[in-house]
Amino acid sequence: MQGRGERAIPMEVVVLGLCRTGTTSIKIALKQLGYNDVYDTQDIWEKDHSLFWTKAIERKQGQRASITMARDDFDGILGNYDCIADIPAAIFARDLVEAYPEAKVVLTIRDEQSWYDSMVETVANPRYGSAYYRLPRYLDAQLARFLRFCDEYSNILWHNDFPRYGKQLFRDHNDSVRQLVADDNLLEFQASQGWEPLCKFLGKQVPEGPYPRTHNWRTYQQEDDAYMQMIYKAFFKRVALAMSPVALGFGAWWLGFLRSEI
């Protein structure tokens, strides 16, 4: 398992809210406030860290559930980041709090029903279980690793049945974070509150301009679709190239057959 690295910069902010609670907005906000970089699910995909997090999740399940991730484990991946948010942070909330006790903790929250509806439209959308999205795991190694990671986090968070367990996950997760972190080191934050409470908690000046609000899941969906199309096109191109000698051979035979009939 990858890990056991050195930390280049201190871990300063751990955002423990579930995905679709404004985690992308707070990533943008933290970078505007001067933090170096915020690690989230997008980094898992772009840097091909899926195998690391898949194995880490597997360690948390079954007979090995008592095994925790230590600071050295995280630093091998997070050593150049001073913040973490979204899926990896939410899954490893206790581990991260224990690994980085000096870091400030933000729990991003929103109305339960609006969160649920947003999840059904995006992360937990049934379309990601369709053959169109599942088949490419056999065509692209990086995507196969990422989809396996997605399978693992879906299992550990909502037992692969979001309609049944999603809302309970939301309540249980938020309550567990509240119990885990001391009140003076925890900020419950909604994007609608704007800059003031976040900056006060982090000891930062309020920047000019509105707090970032993003609905960039549409962009992610477009990128997903474009990537899927690229994989399929590359696959069919390989098939066409592989079949071309057969086609040429058949064409030569057919031409010879036609000529013999003249």
Structure, described:
The chain is of the alpha/beta class and 262 residues long. The chain contains twelve helices and five strands. It has helices at 23-32, 41-46, 50-60, 71-78, 86-91, 93-99, 112-121, 131-134, 141-158, 162-180, 195-202, 217-260, and strands at residues 13-15, 38-39, 83-84, 104-108, 186-189. Strands 2-3-1-4-5 form a five-stranded parallel β-sheet, with helices on both faces. Helix 7 crosses helix 10. The longest helix has 44 residues, at 217-260. The radius of gyration is 23 Å and the shape is globular. The mean pLDDT is 87.
Topology:
Blueprint: E1 13-15, H1 23-32, E2 38-39, H2 41-46, H3 50-60, H4 71-78, E3 83-84, H5 86-91, H6 93-99, E4 104-108, H7 112-121, H8 131-134, H9 141-158, H10 162-180, E5 186-189, H11 195-202, H12 217-260
Parallel strand pairs: 1-3, 1-4, 2-3, 4-5
